[in-house]
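Progress report, Aim 2. The chain analyzed during this reporting quarter is listed below.
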Amino acid sequence: MFSAHPRLLTALATALLASTVLSGCGPAYPEIPRDAETGGQTLVELEDTLNSIEGLTFSDVGGSDPNIKGNTGFGMKVTLEEGYQLANPGALLVFLTESAWSVRDGYMPNIAVEIRYTGPVDDGIDMTAVGIETGWVPSTSSTPGGADNGFTSVSVPVADSATEKGVPENAVRLGPWPGDVPEVPTGMVVERRD
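Predicted structure tokens for the chain:
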């Protein structure tokens, strides 16, 4: 019969635990909520909704795994299709932020929702300025003064980051994660009449 020394057993157990964690089988960042069983919507459900919005095309929609500091976020790219105009940029920003917060699979965003918008060069939309005007982005954020080559982006602070960045009301507006699924705003995108 094999009889192992207690120190050897402890060393083997420690090695097994370390290899499990390092191989990704262990729970990384267990303090960050992940994969909620109920509430909100799945990423696939969000993508289906986004794909149904006439005049907008979405890509790179999804959340991030924690970085080395344990920061997570959610991002998406939105492109205005030819023949349309973004009539209510504020409604788009709020809808996309609330939608990102409502996705229950993956990690809860604990830093920001990143929205990258591309539209006509002449539409003059600056998503950071829109975020400041709607109260979702701190007033100290720098704005480039309009879309650069038709591209503009915004970083909306969420969770504890919202308090640190000076917009604690974001955490109140969003509520517990995953949040309620927002409805697509009417009149947000309209056909261009040039």
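The two ends are 88 Å apart (CA to CA). DSSP finds six helices and six strands in the chain. These observations will guide the mutagenesis work planned for the next reporting period.
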